[in-house]
Amino acid sequence: MNYLKIYTKQAAGSEYPNSFANSVHFSLCTADAEEELNQGCGILYARAEIRPDDTLMERGLQRPVIFQKDGEYGILAVYADAEGNLLKPDTLLLWSTSDFINFSEQREVARSDYAAIYESGAVRLEIPDSLCGKIRARWIPLFSVRAEYPQKLAVKSAQELSAVAARVIYSDGSADEKRIIWNEEDVRALKPGKTCRVRGKIPAVSPEFPLAVGYADPVIFPWKGAWYFLATNDNVNDIGMYVRRADTVAGLFAPETEEHCILAPNPEKGLVQTFWAPEFHEIGGRLYIIFAVSGTQWGPQCHVMRLKENGEIIRAEDWEEPVRVVKKDGRPLAQDGITLDMTWVKSGKRGYLVWSYRRGIGTPADTGSMLWIAEADEAQPWVLTSSPVLLSRPLFGWENTRGTINNEGPYALYAGGKIYLAYSGGDACGYSYAVGYLVAEDGADLLQTDSWCKQPSPALRSTFVEGIQGPGHNSFFRDEEGRLMIAYHAQERGKYNCRCSTYHRVHFSADGFPMLNVTGERDTAKELAQAEISVELAGD
After folding, report:
1. Using alpha carbons only, what angle is made at residue 100 by residues 94 and 105, rounded to the nearest 5 degrees?
2. pLDDT at site 225
């Protein structure tokens, strides 16, 4: 028999504060073992309450129970405050699901309507084998189980070996094709008309952390046959915009790679501080950088800078003057707060800007950062063509941790007919920083909030990838071999006490979901990385 067990956890300081601990956690119990889902991180979180002044009251939950009724599964819990103290004794929180992968929105229901179910106190429930497999595939980290490649091969020349790839199979049945680097000595030993053993190795896809110390919000971008790296540069106190160019992705991080300042501070133009989160985007066939910057008074605002026709990215003089993003009536995007982390998103033939907006930062009236979206014209993307629409607020505990209330750093991934808008929540410089998803159908009207589904739990956080802490503010790119990568910043406490950039491969599960935690040994186990085949080289 298979069971699902639910519970909350005890907080563990900054590494697992109450905002994470006071959520619904799940374990899958089989005859062989009990395994925590989502790598021990909570999956369902109580939504924060919005005060009349538009600030947030963090909320948690306690005493969850699980039940089955009318062909569906349900989870009930009681409201709690930020410290776990019970609230609203006559009210319960309710979620429903058919598969424990997709959950309904949280509803408040009268406790009296569910008294019998809730008082039963059921914390585990039997589930069928068919459901067990789906739950494992989504919530328990996938890992490589075998590598498939020809055991015997007849070739006309040794060069043909370079086309031989390994198909690595994962625990959910998904696969990823990986190249094999063959032992040069073995290849040279091939003789016409003879069969020889040739050894090889599947190289690691993801580099070791970190790649760039003191760089945050990284973007890796191909343009006209070269690769470019753009990021917030903490090494210069985020003043100025710097870019690297190389022939390969790895070359961007070589010690000898030069860095070019393409936008220097200029008080007369209002370019003084917080040169934050620059992103390359090709919009309407032209290359832009979207970024935030402040003048002499701190207060970052979104700007757009366009590359001149036939311009060189690394030449400052080849960029047009930055312009501030404005509403459709020409007014500034914000006059009572800060705007930052803007990105460009396409859905069908329509283009949109998504950005983070915050009012009252550092005061009791702090609203927390929120994601807003508006339509824009490709010919003039710094001017909104629709009214802004509120897309997401940091209502879940993992987004709203220890007083850091963030929804920021949005960046779109397009896959399987869907738009996965990755964004970050929690402390941008701390352990709690994490990446989540808002998901919509590609082609949908993204200004309609019901076009979006907010995933309830983070897709990437501390402990999901070994050796790093506080991963967040990401972008996506495809490398030279077409593999989808996520670039992000993180930390390694005790060694690099600053934000550092890195990247790793995005793995698509058997049901097409972009998984952000299939790295290192899970991506390709050491014993699977060694390849050996019999090769017959054709005779003269």
Report:
1. 35
2. 96
